[in-house]
Amino acid sequence: MSPEGQLVPDLKGRLPGRGAYLCSLRPCVEQAVRRGVLTRALKAGIASSETEGLADKIAELMAQRALSLLGVLRKGKRVIVGRDSIRTELKRGKIHLLVTACDVEGNLFGRGAETLVARSPFSRERLGHAVGKGPQPVLAVLDEKGSREMRRWMDRMKGLAWG
Question: How far does Cα 51 stand from its chain's mean position?
Fold first, then answer.
C-alpha cells in the first residue's frame, strides 16, 4: 500500500508504506486476491478495481523491468544484435546469454549454443524496441552479471506471463 492508500506492486520491495509478500505464480496472486489475503495483510480496505487483473499488472511490470535491463545493457555495449555479430562473438566465447523472441522457432545458431538460449515472452518487435532497433529475433548478452539478472527476471515472469 502506498502512503496514499493505493495498491502498488513493488517488485524490489523498497517503496514506502505497508507491504505484503506474494509468490510470483499466477495461482498464488489470484488466490490471495480471491481470499482477501491482501486486505488482511495490508490492514486496509482494498477496492476490487485495484485487485482486478493484479497478476497481469505484476507480469507487465516484470516485463518492463526485464526490457529496461536489456536497454541498459545495450547502452553499456553489453548486448549485441545481428546474426553475424552474434556468430562472431559465439566463436570467441564471449556470449553468456541468447535471448530469443517468443515468435522464433528452433535454434538459430546450431549446436553448442542451446545452453545459452533463453526463450523470452517478448515478440521480435518488443525485443528490438528495448534496444533501440527494429524487430530482433535474438539478442546476445556479453556480460555475465547482466545475463544472470536477465535470466532471473525471465524466470520470475514465467509463473505470471506464461503460467
Answer: 21
